[in-house]
Specification:
This protein is an all-beta fold. The chain has strands at 4-6, 9-11, 17-22, 33-38, 45-50, 57-59, 67-72, 77-82, 91-97, 100-101, 105-109. The strands form 2 sheets. Strands 2, 4, 5, 6, 9, 10 and 11 form a 7-stranded mixed β-sheet that branches.
């Protein structure tokens, strides 16, 4: 079953949002998870990745120090905490786990 993202919305520059990605139908704890984003007219880009046991994370340079990826395997849920948001963070955010994409959640950063 495809993962389901939520938590997007409209936020002012400097604000915060937390995205969630809920997985079902498989053992979530066995797989790494990633967040991607795609802005209009641009290619989908990798934002952050976390391994299956949360011992390793990686971030795109553009979000380092502002975004934090995490997961709760007991809840089969991954998260992306986004702080100090900028207009250039505006995009549709997708999670990827077990080679399955979610439907995406829209994040718009604007005053």
């Amino acid at each position: 079953v495809q993962p389901v993202e939520s938590g997007g919305g409209l936020v002012q520059p400097g604000g915060s949002l937390r995205l969630s990605c809920v997985a079902s139908g498989f053992t979530f704890s066995m797989y790494a998870m990633s967040w991607y984003r795609q802005a209009p007219g641009k290619e989908r880009e990798l934002v952050a990745t976390i391994n299956s046991i949360s011992s390793s994370t990686n971030y795109a340079d553009s979000v380092k120090g502002r975004f934090t990826i995490s997961r709760d395997n007991a809840k089969s849920t991954g998260y992306l905490q986004m702080n100090s948001l900028k207009p250039e963070d505006t995009a549709t955010y997708y999670c990827l786990v077990r080679r399955m994409w979610g439907q995406g959640t829209q994040v718009t950063v604007s005053s």
